[in-house]
Amino acid sequence: MKPDFDLNVVLSRIEEAIEPYPKAAMFELYERGYSSLFEQLISCIISIRTLDETTIPVSLRLFAVARTPAEFLILTPERLTELLHGCTYPDQKAYTMLGIARRVMEEFSGQLPTNFEQLTSFKGVGPKCANLALGVATGQAAISVDVHVHRVVNRWGYVQTRQPEQTLKVLEQQVPQPLWTDINRLLMPFGKHICTGNLPHCSTCPVLAWCEQVGVTKHR
Ligand code: SF4
Fold first, then answer.
1. What is the pLDDT of residues 182-209, one digit of tens each?
2. Which fold has domain 25-138?
3. Where does the chain show beta strands of DSSP type E?
4. Structural domain 7-18+143-210, CATH architecture
5. Which of 10, 158, 219 maximizes ligand 1 atoms within 8 Å of its Cβ, making it the mutation to test the pocket?
6. Residues with a CB atom less than 6 Å from ligand 1
7. pLDDT tens digits, residue range 79-133?
8. What is the domain partition of the chain in residue ranges?
9. Recorded GO terms, molecular function (predicted)?
10. What sign has the CA pseudo-torsion 96, 161, 174, 215?
């Protein structure tokens, strides 16, 4: 018999369990001082289909050269692509970033809008990056659902969804707003290191008592 699912207790156990592991890239970069909405958005674009182990050094290399929309516009597409070397689709991401920088300067006086609808109106900015950047940089209540968050909450049986977009909608209804940013901060490293895609570490998992282990056929 499982105890009633208590999200506060589950998240506090996860907070302790992930302590030995590196923070998720965006949170790590925030702590290193790359905390503006523009920097967070740029790093999130770098992180698309790219491991944190690459996202962090590529972001640091780029920010050593340019940190603001005005500084990005000094770069040629070729130079920006070169700086993005190592992440996936560097030329496509360079094109996206320069488009964002140009529009910020032309339409928003150099400051990205802190509003989800306006932010997602930028070409190449989806709900995942908009919410993550807004949550980390501005402290706004926002949930970003990546593959880890999507997998973990489905395994718990907390949601029953097929796509991350559906997961976002359900989590926005079920999770109290003060916990929205914690969902990303905690479940990204938890999904990466403990509730892994293959062979999750269920036998030592601190939230096994609350987890339905939906779809888990083999585990460590
Ligand atoms: S018990 Fe297993 S499936 Fe459930 S959260 Fe822990 S590692 Fe993931």
1. 998 999 999 999 999 999 999 999 999 9
2. Endonuclease III; domain 1 (1.10.340)
3. none
4. Orthogonal Bundle (1.10)
5. 219
6. 152, 155-156, 194-195, 200-202, 205, 207-208, 211, 213, 216, 219
7. 999 999 999 999 999 999 999 999 999 999 999 999 999 999 999 999 889 999 9
8. 7-18+143-210, 25-138
9. endonuclease activity
10. negative
